Amino acid sequence: MMKKQILKHAKTCGDNECCGLIIDNKRYIACKNIALDPQNNFEISPDDWVGAENQGEITAIVHSHPNGLPILSQADQLFQKQTKLDWWLVCHNKIYQFNAIKPLLGRDFKHGVDDCLTMVIDAYMLTGITIPNYERQDNWWNKGQNLYLDLLPINGFYQVDDIQEGDIILVCLGTKVPNHAAIYIGNQMMLHHCPTRLSTRDLYNGYWLKYTHSIWRHKAWQPSAFMAILNNMALNLN
Predict the structure, then answer these.
(1) Which candidate among 41, 53, 128, 134 keeps its CA 20 to 30 Å from the CA of 141?
(2) Could you say which of 9, 192, 213, 218 is catalytic?
(3) How many domains would you assign to the chain?
(4) What pLDDT digit, counting tens, does each position of 180-196 carry?
C-alpha cells in the first residue's frame, strides 16, 4: 500500500521531483517540494518535516528522478550522510532503496563489520544491486572455507577474463584461496579495505596484480551505475 502511494505521488508530480517522508517504516507522508528548480532538485517544506515529526519517527526520505538515473546523485549522497537516514528513490516507476552507510573511503577496519566484503556490499547497494551480508569469522580462509568463490556465483556474478569499472577483483593475501576483494574503479585504480588500514584507493599493479585470483562481474551491471560509486567517493576523497 505504502509503495503504491509513493509511486502515485511521483506520477502526479510529473517532471518535477516528488518528495516525502516515511514514518515508523510503515506510513508515507507526501511533502511539498519547495526547491527553486524542482525538475532537478528537491527540498522538503520545513512545515511538512515538522508535521511528520509530530506523527512518529522519520525513518526514510523519499524523492524521485523523473528524467534521471536510478542512483543517488552526489548531492543526494551528501544530504543522506547528513540525515543518517535511508533514502528511497523513484525512477522509471520503480522504487530503489538505499541504506544509510558510512562513506566508502576512510573507514576503520573491523572484520565482519567493516571489512572488504562490507565495502563490496555497500558499493553495490549504491548501484541498485543487493548482495546479502554473511556472518563470517576472522581467518575463515585458513579454516577450510572459500567465502568469495561460494558467495559470488549464487549472487549473480560470473568470472571474466577482461576488466572494467565496477568489476570485483579477488586477491590471495598469503593464502591459496581468495580472501580479499577490491572494486576496479578505472585508470588502473581499485577501491578496497585492508586490515590495519582505512579503506582507500590503490594502484592496481605490482603486488595486487601479481596475487590476483580472478575478476568477477555482475550479470545486471550497467555502466551508468558506476556513477553512484564515484559520487560516494567524491564525498571523502583521500
Answers:
(1) 128
(2) 192
(3) 2
(4) 999 999 999 999 999 98
